[in-house]
């Protein structure tokens, strides 16, 4: 099956956080296939190097990777600045990094709570801050895509730190869209449902759990990272230049279920 190419993404500078594994790695592949210049970060150097090697062998050479923990805001902003200096302003920012660790209310501590928000929310606004400054200085527009989750819409249990972060992304996205729209910077949230990744498979997936999700979805197949990546390309490209402040839900209809599951 073939999918839409986006000419506006060719040679466009793209930054993806959490790009060394999971959905992030598929995002890197998707933008590289569009001919974008892709910089990404992650906390798995072996995964980042392997992805660079894989894409180089496929003929994609406009790539940059650094190991960076998004909880370290000065390090993240310094990397974003280096990318802008080397390649020009980052026209597409995908705030993807996050982690859906399970935890009960009784297990929460203030330190654990802060770590959840730092992993899943805080870095998104500070990365946007840095990229917006680049775009304003260059007097060009851009697209910021914040990775959300339908987990908060469904009230998923044992994820309160994660779901609180992901719910906040929706409000943050709408406010940033209003604030940055005057500079032709679009801000949207991409909201995945139950996505099959290596981490999900290693920790939680089994045939019974797969079937539960399929039964709840309108579309009767499991989604994977490529479904998220293709939708992200659309929000990044000029084809969506009239869309900002929105939640694009990619969940095969799972969010229509109002009960926790």
How do the helices and strands follow one another from N- to C-terminus? EHEHEHEHEHHEEHHEHE
Q: Rg from C-alpha positions?
A: 18 Å
Strand arrangement, major sheet: 3-2-1-4-5-6-9
Extract low-pLDDT stretches. none
Structural class: alpha/beta
Would you give the CATH topology? Rossmann fold
**Number of helical runs?**
9
CATH class: Alpha Beta
What spatial form do the alpha-carbon principal axes imply? Answer: globular
What is the count of structural domains?
1
Question: What is the straight-line distance between the termini?
Answer: 32 Å
Q: Give helix % range.
A: 40-55%
CATH hierarchy: architecture: 3-Layer(aba) Sandwich
Report what the structure shows.
The chain has 261 residues and is an alpha/beta fold. It has one domain: Rossmann fold. 47% of the residues lie in helices and 16% in strands. It has 9 helices and 9 strands. It has helices at residues 22-33, 45-57, 73-87, 110-138, 151-154, 160-180, 198-203, 207-216, 225-236; strands spanning 13-16, 37-42, 63-67, 92-95, 142-147, 185-192, 195-196, 223-224, 247-250. The protein has a 7-stranded parallel sheet with strand order 3-2-1-4-5-6-9, sandwiched between helices. Strands 7-8 form a two-stranded parallel sheet. β4, α4 and β5 (142-147) form a beta-alpha-beta unit. The chain is globular and about 45 Å long. The mean pLDDT is 93.
């Amino acid at each position: 099956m073939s999918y839409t190419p986006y000419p506006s993404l060719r040679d466009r500078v793209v930054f993806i956080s959490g790009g060394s594994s999971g959905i992030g790695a598929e995002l890197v592949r998707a933008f590289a296939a569009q001919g974008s210049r892709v910089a990404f970060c992650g906390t798995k150097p072996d995964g980042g190097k392997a992805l660079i090697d894989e894409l180089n062998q496929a003929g994609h050479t406009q790539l940059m990777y650094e190991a960076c923990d998004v909880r370290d805001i000065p390090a993240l902003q310094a990397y974003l600045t280096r990318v802008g200096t080397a390649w020009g302003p980052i026209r597409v920012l995908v705030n993807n990094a996050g982690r859906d660790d399970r935890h009960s209310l009784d297990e929460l501590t203030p330190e654990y709570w802060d770590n959840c928000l730092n992993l899943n929310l805080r870095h998104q606004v500070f990365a946007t801050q840095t990229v917006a400054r680049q775009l304003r200085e260059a007097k060009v527009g851009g697209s910021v895509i914040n990775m959300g989750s339908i987990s908060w819409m469904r009230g998923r249990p044992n994820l309160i730190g994660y779901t609180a972060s992901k719910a906040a992304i929706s409000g943050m996205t709408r406010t940033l869209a209003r604030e940055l729209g005057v500079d032709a910077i679009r801000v949207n949230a991409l909201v995945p449902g139950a996505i099959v990744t290596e981490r999900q498979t290693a920790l939680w997936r089994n045939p019974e759990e797969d079937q539960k999700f399929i039964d709840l979805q309108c579309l009767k197949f499991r989604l994977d990272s490529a479904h998220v990546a293709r939708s992200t390309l659309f929000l990044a490209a000029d084809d969506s230049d009239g869309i900002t402040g929105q939640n694009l839900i990619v969940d095969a209809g799972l969010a229509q279920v109002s009960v926790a599951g």
